[in-house]
Amino acid sequence: MDRLKCVARLVLDRLQSAELIICGFGLCLTTLLIFAQVLNRYWLHFEIMILGDLALYCFIFFMFIAGAVATWKECHVSVDAFRDKALCGRPRGLARHRAVLTVMSVVILASFLPQVHSFVLRALKYPEWGTLVRWFNHSWLMESFGVAMVLVLLHLLVIAGRDIKALLDERKSPEGGAR
Amino acid sequence: MEFGLVVGLLAFFAGIVIGLPLCWVFLGCSTLAVLLMDDSLSFMAGTAYHSIDSYVLMAIAFFIFAGNLMADSGIADRLVRLAHSLVGHIKGGLVDVGILATVFMGALTGSSVPCIAALIPLLVPQLERFGYQKRYTTSVLCSSSFLGYLIPPSVPGLMYCLVASQSVAALFLSTVFPGLILAGGYITLNHIIAPKYLMASRAEGVSSWGVKATARERASALWYALPALGTPVIVLGGIYGGVFTPNEAGAVAAVYTLLVGAFVYKGLKKKNTWTCIVNTVGTLGMITLLLAFGTVFTRLLIREGVAQAFAESMIGAFGSKYLVLFMLNMLLLVLGMFIDGIPILLIAVPLILPLVSAYDINLVHLGAIVVVNVGLGVVTPPYAMSMFVGSRLSGVPYSDLVKPMLLFLLFVGLPLLFLTTYVPALSCWLPTLVVGPDVVGAW
After folding, report:
1. A130-139, A164-173, B161-170, B207-216: the lowest-pLDDT one
2. Which residues of B touch A59 (CB under 8 A)?
3. What band does A32 get if pLDDT is binned at 50, 70 and 90?
4. Nearest to B251 among A34, A80, A108 (CB)
5. Which of B84, B115, B85, B108 is nearest to B97 (CA)?
6. Nearest C-alpha neighbor of B262 from the set B227, B233, B226, B237
7. d(C-alpha B230, C-alpha B85), whole Å
8. pLDDT of residue A178
9. Is A38 in contact with B256 (CB distance < 8 Å)?
10. Residues 6 or more apart from A57 whose CB is under 8 A from it?
């Protein structure tokens, strides 16, 4: 069991690193492509028409993956004012609240995935080739949207597991149980 | 209004109150409403996907990236030195240094939090040496962070352009005068109330204001800050000179900042550059999911006529344009007290567009009003992002920041909001002059 946990942890770490590298590379590449477009327009004058479109494709792709990164980094915005007021000084209540919210997030995203699945299937069935970047299929971006949503769900499940474990630990501890 | 939609809206408010991340609130209540209305869910995935397909969003990404690089590149202390050489000798002027430095940083980062993240660790301990209470200087800097939204380039301004399909060039200029008035107001109020916050004890032989800088010192400070000040010149000069589009300006700003930070100021090393990239990716990921699902939610509301119903009820209830604008401000202010700027822009702007078109309110003017409101949200308790960051960075308890910040809010922030709302010339004159009346429209 411990070995399985170790392997899962390792796979997850690698996955997170890969997502970060893809996004970091995507951000830098998009920036450089647009910068190169400016340089080309005023100084180089090569007949390259594809830079703008290519940068947009690259941008869309890494932005979807960034959604997965934001999920495991827990960057999402929420209104915490009421929660802080109601659950201040109640660690067990906070842990329970956290676990419930994460499970709700999982349920909400899981209910959206069938739509994403049909969207991706449609994209696979009807490829849309780019106008300026002829070899680029827009359907790849739609498929990457599907992949990103699955990754987001995976990270949410990991967070949900962690929050539920924290809640169980809180219950076991005498300080947590006192509240 | 259909039953499903009412339940969806109730679920939306319930989701916000319980603290569910806003992207899941948008997605959850849209799904719930559509399911209860027995409608097809098929539009949702396509709408979410297409919301990201935008060059303006790319510009937002570049400006956030440039802002993060800027905050970490060591540019802040050069700007502080320049501001110090300009106003440091005036009584209370050391705090003005912070306000002026925020104006410079705002012109570089286009955002609020990177401004204070760079300036608070730099200025608060120094000003304490000169006898200024930490809670006061932190409050002033947190209040000034709002300037980051008003001095172009502005990330919320870009977001507004994305949602309302407005000219980025016009919107950037619409908040210049409000920004300068705000800075002037803060400096004036600082001179009035700063003596109250001066401590009796200060470092030996140190007065609470500096020595007047010589012309040579000022020139030297300007020389060292010049590469940093090149960013707004390149960005704004490039956009208004017709050299590049806003997203190209963003990319040029990011590359320029990277080069200046790494090779001129030498503040950007491999490690902190990677940290900047990681932070940018986190912020962009948050924006991706918010924008994707927020667009689904607002598309649903517009499709079901909620925006139109909201406009009709506001017109019916208040009648006059001035009252409607006042109520809009109240609504945006209350939202800003609890919700972050980007979700406000995503939810509120599409809902109020039919209302403002009914009263012929100029959309560039509306953009300025919305950006000022979003900026006020950053400094308005209880959910004031700048106060959370400021409190963490300076070690001053959140509650100690509230009173001085409220003074700046009541005497400068709110009057500025009403000035921007009821004097359209303040936000429309400069854009009309620079980008032309065809782009800005009648005001």
Report:
1. B207-216
2. 57-58, 61
3. very high
4. A34
5. B84
6. B227
7. 19
8. 43
9. no
10. A130, A133, A136, A141
Phi, psi of B132 (to 5 degrees): -90, 135
- Residue B116 tokens read as 């204070």
Give all strands (DSSP E) within B192-301, no chain letters: none
Residue linked to tokens 């004159």: B429
A105 in Cβ contact with A71 (< 8 Å) = no
Is the ipTM beyond the 0.90 threshold? yes
Q: Are B133 and B404 in contact (CB under 8 A)?
A: no
Inter-residue long-range contacts of B213-216, CB under 8 Å, 24+ positions, other chains counted: B213/B84, B213/B85, B213/B86, B213/B88, B213/B89
Q: Inter-chain contact B251–A38, Cβ cutoff 8 Å?
A: yes
Q: Which two tokens stand for residue A46?
A: 């090569």
Among B318, B358, B303, B10, which residue's Cα sits nearest to residue B331? Answer: B318
Residues of B in contact with A42 (CB under 8 A): 243
pLDDT, tens digit (0-9, with 9 covering 90-100), for B373-385: 999 988 888 778 8
Q: How far is B83 from chain A (nearest CA, A)?
A: 31
**How far apart are the C-alpha atoms of A4 and A161, rounded to whole Å?**
15
Tokens standing for residue B321: 């344009």
* Of residues B358 and B110, more confidently modeled: B358
Q: What are the residues whose beta carbons fall under 8 Å from the beta carbon of A101, sequence distance 6 or more?
A: B18, B19, B20, B21
Provide CB contacts within 8 A for B222, sequence distance 6+: B82, B85
Query: Between the CA atoms of B168, B170, B175 and B176, what dihedral angle is there, to the nearest 10 degrees?
Result: 110
Give the Cβ contact number of residue B395 at 10 Å.
9
Cβ contacts of A81 on chain B, cutoff 8 Å: 338, 382-383
| Nearest residue in A to B21, CA atom | A78
pTM of model > 0.95 = no
Q: Do A38 and B248 touch (CB under 8 A)?
A: yes
Q: What is the pLDDT of residues B38-60, one digit of tens each?
A: 888 888 999 999 988 888 889 88
